[in-house]
Amino acid sequence: AQSVAQPEDQVNVAEGNPLTVKCTYSVSGNPYLFWYVQYPNRGLQFLLKYITGDNLVKGSYGFEAEFNKSQTSFHLKKPSALVSDSALYFCAAHKTGFQKLVFGTGTRLLVSP
Amino acid sequence: EAGVVQSPRYKIIEKKQPVAFWCNPISGHNTLYWYLQNLGQGPELLIRYENEEAVDDSQLPKDRFSAERLKGVDSTLKIQPAELGDSAVYLCASSPRGAGANVLTFGAGSRLTVL
Minimal Cα distance from B40: which residue of A? Predict the structure, then answer.
């Protein structure tokens, strides 16, 4: 069975510093990997995805993520955090040709001024 | 373009009562999903529709939950009777065919509280 793990319940970072939100996955075959963000009282919003190709994918709002097949990881990164980045971030995955998206438990990002 | 619309946003009911949630997906999106999100957890798929056909309902507790997507557009998720453990946020999402098929657009969710 496929699964996604987000080992940190919360990540704290100061504004202007780089941020990393960790994600590891367990998916048979070639995975499709995603990051979504959830702001209070709003639905999840798509940030970026990895399907194939370059291991570094760029997404919305300056976020990027690096696919590492050997470590089965897909960490979310941003070079310089903003207070407005504070939200709940979800990593998700499904295997090729199978549209059942499995989510991690989420990581709350708190960016302090 | 309007996003995925869900109603009601909030619902409080007593246990054993019925409840229904409605979802209007993005126009032209043929795939519709209902997810359950418990507090502190990630969303879990309940059911997926391709047009009006339920293609994956393996996670739907069919003894009390039912869903329909008439005419392949709007969808309704019903719980009857509700139990205390059903308190959660029910998320609807949709996706198109083709290149964007694996990117879901979510609604704001319907938060259910069962007393």
Answer: A105
Query: Given the structure tokens 């069919």, which residue do they identify?
Result: B62
Q: Distance between CA atoms of B19 and B75, rounded to whole angstroms? A: 14
A contact test, residue of B9, B39, B50, B102 with most A CBs within 10 A = B102
Q: Which residues of B touch A104 (CB under 8 A)?
A: 42
Q: B42 and A46: CB-CB below 8 Å?
A: no
pLDDT tens, position by position, for chain B (115 residues)?
679 999 999 999 999 999 999 999 999 899 999 999 998 899 999 999 999 999 989 889 999 999 999 888 999 999 999 999 999 999 999 998 877 778 999 999 999 999 9
- Nearest by CB to A99, from B3, B44, B102: name it: B102
Q: What is the pLDDT of residues A43-87, one digit of tens each?
A: 899 999 999 888 999 999 999 999 999 999 999 999 999 999 999
Secondary structure class of B69 (helix, strand, coil) = coil
Closest chain A residue by Cα to residue B38:
A105
Amino acid identity, position B83: E
The sheet with strand B19-24 has its strands ordered as: B5-7, B19-24, B75-79, B65-68
The torsion of the CA quartet B97, B98, B104, B106, rounded to 10 degrees, works out to: -40
**Mean pLDDT, rounded, for A35-41:** 91
Taking the CB of residue B30, how many other CB atoms lie within 10 A of it?
17
**Domain A3-98: CATH architecture, name and number where available:** Sandwich (2.60)
Give the chain A residue nearest B105 (alpha carbons).
Answer: A45
